[in-house]
């Protein structure tokens, strides 16, 4: 599998959610000091471009890094649209899924990742989904 050819090393899916926004912010923070953490291309993904844009703008303000929104990709996809999940998964080496509840929304993301050779991690805290 040639993940090197994929445009994004990491995609944070559900970055507009309560938890996802903090995850996106922490990924951005790790990228602030490139000497300590080599800068890797990454993106946020979800169903609302406006919300994702706002998450990046808030992170830019918080981290004092105005160029952040132009450095991070935005991918539009919806859990209810399998083709959009495939397109998202194809562009990433790793998908970090923050869309919950996982017992309702988790499976299509795992399926898209398996079918497209993408690594998938999540922040699931639901015993019902394990
Ligand atoms: N492990 C832990 O300690 C821990 C702690 C907190 C949360 N969690 C887990 O994180 C999950 C999310 O919690 P949260 O509080 O962050 O939830 P939330 O604020 O409701 O966020 C849900 C996210 O899912 C997105 N989403 C919902 N339906 C979608 C769809 N059809 N297509 C694409 N995106 C969709 C939402 O997008 P929109 O913004 O467009 O609506 C939003 O980004 C929980 O279910 C829980 O399992 C775990």
Automatic annotation (TrEMBL):
Pfam families registered for this protein in UniProt: Sacchrp_dh_NADP
A cellular component annotation (GO) from this entry: lipid droplet
GO biological process: glycolipid biosynthetic process
SUPFAM superfamilies per UniProt: NAD(P)-binding Rossmann-fold domains
Segments forming domain Saccharopine dehydrogenase NADP binding: 11-124
Family: Belongs to the saccharopine dehydrogenase family.
Protein name: Saccharopine dehydrogenase-like oxidoreductase
Natural source organism: Leptonychotes weddellii (Weddell seal)
């Amino acid at each position: 599998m040639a993940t090197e050819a994929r445009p994004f090393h990491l995609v944070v899916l559900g970055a507009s959610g309560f938890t996802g926004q903090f995850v996106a912010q922490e990924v951005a923070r790790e990228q602030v000091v490139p000497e300590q953490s080599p800068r890797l291309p990454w993106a946020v993904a979800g169903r609302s471009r406006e919300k994702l844009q706002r998450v990046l703008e808030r992170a830019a303000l918080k981290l004092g890094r105005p160029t952040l929104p132009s450095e991070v990709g935005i991918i539009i996809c919806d859990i209810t649209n399998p083709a959009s999940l495939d397109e998202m998964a194809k562009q990433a080496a790793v998908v970090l899924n923050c869309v919950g509840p996982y017992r309702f929304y988790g499976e299509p993301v795992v399926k898209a990742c398996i079918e497209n050779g993408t690594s998938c991690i999540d922040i699931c805290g639901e015993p019902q989904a394990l």
